[in-house]
Amino acid sequence: MLKEPKRTLISCRKAAEILGCTMGRVRQMARGDQPTLWSAKLGARALVLDAAEVKRLAAARHKARDARTARGPAFGGFQPDS
To answer: For 80, which DSSP code?
Structure first.
């Protein structure tokens, strides 16, 4: 893990494992006009995310799933990019 002031940074792969989704979905959540997750680029290709935000989002998603208030299909689980 890398450190930035007041943030613990994790890789896109680790975030996908925590969230139980694909790495592509993590990148979608980190970009756009109103990103769901804070992210930063390290170099040309490496994307890092805030570990605390990822864990909070994972907890909220699992709580909604357990309460049956989450829309859409069940989470597909971690899948790395090939």
So the answer is: -
Cα(28)–Cα(65) distance, integer angstroms: 21
SS3 63: helix
**Look-up of token digits 């805030």:** 50
Tell me the whole-structure pTM to 2 decimals.
Answer: 0.80
Cα–Cα distances in angstroms (integers) from residue 7 to residues 1, 2, 35, in the given order: 10, 9, 17
Let me know: does 13 contact 80? Beta carbons within 8 Å: yes
- H-helix or E-strand spanning residue 19: helix 12-19
**Interval 38-59: pLDDT, tens:** 998 888 888 999 999 999 999 9
Determine the longest span between alpha carbons in the chain, in angstroms.
Answer: 40
